[in-house]
Specification:
The structure is a single chain. The protein has 227 residues and is of the alpha+beta class. It contains 5 helices and 12 strands. A 6-stranded mixed β-sheet has the order 3-4-2-1-12-11, covered by helices on one side. Helix 1 crosses helix 5 and helix 3 runs parallel beside helix 4. The longest helix is centred in the middle third of the chain and has 15 residues.
Length: 227
């Protein structure tokens, strides 16, 4: 059996708060990190995404501007079999949205990962989460879908994911937004697959002062055993 740590983090506008964000990410010690609000500046986004991954002692896999600022990065234990990114159509003047995904292998065991950041509008979220589910269905092994869903667990996008077989192992003991005084859990990390056991989920165990300073969201992590 193989144990890995998967985490998700909305880093706020490309990690604009600098060193404290990098400190949090390194302390997460994730094998797979699914990022929201990665760099998206035209012409510069890929260089900046790769630079972030380097600072985190990880490897850029997919995402950035073509994925609506979602990104997948991995640690040294993780091999990448394939990856992709897709921009989701939005009304004029609305923020970019999209999906980044990767088919990964850890010590011979497959796992899929999908990073998403859903819209503020309820109807658009429902369309977007359907596409997330479609992309996830193309990946092999257990699949993790994670990111900022912009609604709490009772919302319809969470329910669509649950209906598609994804399990929410979290609870309200670890709320993620706003980071300075968390009152709700709008960031998700859901897992589908019979060959994965979630050993822990939620609080990554980092100092409160860092989490308050680094972003407007708090990260969450899951330790997963691959059978």
């Amino acid at each position: 059996m193989t144990r890995i740590r998967v985490a998700t983090y909305n880093i706020l506008m490309g990690g604009r708060r600098g060193a404290v964000v990098h400190d949090v990410v390194r302390r997460l010690d994730a094998d797979v990190l699914l990022v929201n609000e990665s760099p998206k500046q035209p012409l510069l986004w890929k260089r900046r995404c790769r630079a972030l991954a380097d600072r985190w002692q990880m490897r850029y896999v997919a995402g950035g501007r073509p994925a609506g600022s979602n990104m997948v990065v991995v640690g040294p234990r993780v091999a990448v079999k394939s990856s992709g990114a897709e921009r989701l159509k939005q009304p004029l003047f609305q923020p970019r949205r999209g999906i980044a995904w990767a088919q990964l292998r850890v010590e011979g065991r497959l796992i899929g990962a999908v990073s998403c950041h859903l819209s503020l509008d309820r109807e658009r979220r429902l369309r977007e989460v359907q596409r997330v589910i479609e992309v996830a269905s193309t990946l092999r092994g257990p699949v993790v879908v994670a990111g900022d869903l912009n609604e709490p667990p009772r919302g319809p996008s969470w329910q669509r994911l649950r209906d598609a077989g994804f399990v929410d192992h979290g609870d309200n003991t670890w709320e993620t937004f706003p980071a300075e005084d968390p009152r709700t859990r709008i960031d998700a990390l859901l897992v589908r697959g019979t060959t994965a056991t979630v050993l822990s989920h939620g609080d990554p165990g980092l100092p409160d002062r860092l989490l308050r300073a680094a972003s407007d969201h708090r990260p969450l992590s899951a330790d997963i055993e691959l059978l």
